[in-house]
Every structure is written in C-alpha cells, then in structure tokens.
Design goal:
Helix content: 40-55%
Structural class: alpha/beta
Number of strands: 12
Largest sheet: 9 strands, mixed
Shape: elongated
Strand order of the largest sheet: 1-2-6-5-4-3-7-8-9
Order of helices and strands: HHHHHHEEEHEHEHEHEHEHEHHHEHHEE
Length: about 375
C-alpha cells in the first residue's frame, strides 16, 4: 500500500465517531480516504449517518499527528498492512460488515488457497481438552489447515503449540498493538509462530490489551475462518462470544461434548443442546460437515495387501461391496450406526485404503 494512502486511512481511523462500518460507507462513496478529508461539508452531510458532530470531528487536524506517529511505527518495524479491499486481506472477513478496515500483521502469513479454522476455549484447559486438541490437529494435519486462535492462556496457546508441532501455519489474533505481547509469558513462542504463520491485529501500537479489545478481537477470529471449534468452555466465557459471532457470520461452529458434571464442558454442551454448534467427536466430523475433500488434499493412500478391519468397519465394507456406492446417511441407516460414529469409521477406512469418497458425498469400496 502506498504510504500516502495508508496515512489518510490511519487518520480516518482516529476520527472520533467513525467506526469500521461508517468508514467503509465513506470509502465506498468517495473512493479513497484522502478524498473524504477534502470533501465539502455538503458532500459529507449527504451521506446517511454524517451529522454536524461527525462533520466537526472530520475537521480535527490532530488526527494527522496521530497518523504520522503510527505510520512511523509501521515503517520502522516492517509491519504488513492489509486494507479490507486488498488481496492479502482475509477473504471471508471481507464479507463481515463490521470487519476491520485495516489489519496489521507480522511474520509469514499466507492465506491463499488455505483451509482455515479457529480453535478457542477456556483459559483453564484440562487434560481432556489437551488430549482432544492434540488428536484433532494431528488428524487434520494432512489437510494442511491454518490454525487461528487468540494467543491467550489455555486452549489458545495449546492450539498454537500443536500447530507448530505438526508443521501447520498458525495465526495469533491479538487484542493489542504489535509492539507488545500479552500475556508476557508467551513471548517465548513468538519466534516459532512467526516462522510459519504470524500475528494479526486491528489495534495500533498505542493500544493496550484492555478488556473491551478482546471482544473486538474475537470477531476477527470468528469472521476470517471457515469454522470455529470450541474445545472446552464454562457456561460463560469469551469463547462462547466467539461462537455466537461465528453463528452470526453464518460460519460453522463445532463444540466438543463433555460430562454434564464437568465445569469446562458446560459451555460446549449448551452450544450443542441449543443447536448453536455441531457435535465434534473427531476430525472426521469437521471434515464431513465442511465438505473437505480428503482424496484431493492428501497424498494417495495405497491399499495394503492385508488390511485388518474391526467388526464395525467390516460391516460397513461388506455393505458397500454389496451396494456399490452410497451416501453417508444411508450407510449409517442400513448399518445401524449414528452419524458421528459412521463418519469416524469412514475416515479410518479411507486411510486404510479400503474405501474412497466420491463427488456428492458418496463412498464406495475399493
């Protein structure tokens, strides 16, 4: 982005009373940010929502001093900036009306042609949550998805660490400027995150991790990804806000069920009970719901000469041999398995090389 364009965009962000929605409205009308500041009063007031107070604020020259300081920080620290109409701006976030006008990034983020999911949850993650998160990311690794989270304690940092372990790109969306890291104890993970991924924020270097910033941060986590996964959550928490935002953006939401007596499963169980989230018992559930094509995205699976199938897998295999090819729901019905179970069986059998998926969510025996 040309520095002059960025300068005026930064200045526009500092005009009191102009948020992301109003900024986009003005930018769409005038074409660029510099033209907004040079527009006549009659031109500005013709825009719905622009009154005398906002008109006065647009004439406040102090916003240019603030923009100059922030631009200097961006240049000196080689911060990448994505404008909401640029190619390097997250494609799905472009369709969110309240998405940030500008995103500031560091590291080596590459969103092109990538599957992207967010993993969120409690800051008090249990061994159950850690084990599930590990298995989920390990099983998704062949599909090479980007793992997005908030770089906070608990589920967030576990998701980032596991993404690094399985050589997946990971993005930490933070609730402050890129001149700092919160929590400070996570500074030791920064270099590894930026090696294959990086950090993203809408906040200036002058912004601290204030409470209200985390809610704003959550809409980026929810809006930029195909789906949001809630690993563990109490009956109230920031991850539930992210899940609700994802639902508002018409994104898929998944929640890991737990025992009714477990404090950090109550939020997930409630999401499932109120039909605000799909049940997530394995990576196969997510792959099926999102219609990710294993056959195209993974290396070809060579069928073993001698394959051991358990009784359930053998039942499914025999049925497919008899019918030729069938959709998952019908397989589940005739083999007397629930959907969540059949999806896991089919994934395991595909990895063993005894069945393969076909267009239209069909499966056939090999």
């Amino acid at each position: 982005m040309i520095e002059q364009d960025l300068f005026y965009l930064l200045a526009l962000q500092r005009v009191e009373g102009i948020g992301d929605i109003m900024a986009k409205k003005l930018l769409t009308h005038f074409g660029d940010s510099e033209s907004i500041f040079k527009a006549k009063a009659t031109q500005l007031t013709a825009i719905d929502g622009v009154g005398s107070i906002l008109l006065k604020n647009l004439k406040d020259k102090s916003v240019f001093e603030k923009a100059t300081q922030e631009l200097r920080f961006i240049v000196d620290n080689a911060i990448d900036v994505a404008y909401f109409q640029d190619e390097n701006y997250p494609e799905r976030l472009k369709h969110c009306i309240d998405g940030p006008v500008l995103l500031f990034t560091s590291g080596n983020i590459n969103l092109k042609n990538k599957k992207t999911i967010s993993i969120v949850g409690t800051r008090q993650i249990t061994s159950y949550g850690i084990d599930f998160c590990r298995k989920l990311i390990e099983d998704l690794a062949p599909l090479d998805p980007i793992i997005v989270s908030g770089f906070a304690y608990g589920v967030d940092i576990v998701a980032h660490q596991l993404a690094i372990e399985f050589n997946l790109q990971t993005i930490g969306v933070v609730a402050h400027g890129l001149n700092q890291i919160y929590p400070k104890t996570h500074k030791k993970y920064v270099a590894k995150v930026e090696q294959n991924g990086g950090f993203m924020t809408e906040f200036w270097s002058s912004s601290n991790p204030d409470k209200e910033n985390f809610v704003r941060r959550n809409r980026i986590v929810a809006g930029m990804t195909e789906a949001t996964v809630v690993i563990e959550s109490a009956d109230r928490g920031g991850s539930l806000i992210t899940a609700n935002m994802a639902n508002d953006y018409n994104r898929d939401v998944f929640a890991v069920p737990g025992r009714v007596t477990d404090k950090y499963s109550q939020g997930c169980n409630n999401l499932i009970k109120t039909q605000k989230a799909n049940v997530l018992t394995s990576a196969a559930d997510l792959i099926y719901i999102l219609n990710w094509d294993l056959e195209k995205e993974t290396k070809p699976v060579q069928k073993q000469l001698f394959v051991t199938l358990d009784n359930e897998e053998q039942k499914v295999y025999d049925y497919l041999l008899k019918t030729g090819k069938e959709v998952m729901d019908i397989i589940a019905l005739h083999c007397d398995f629930p959907i969540h179970r059949i999806s896991g069986l089919l994934l395991n059998m595909e990895l063993k090389g005894v069945i393969r998926p076909l267009p239209g969510k069909l499966f056939e025996a090999i």
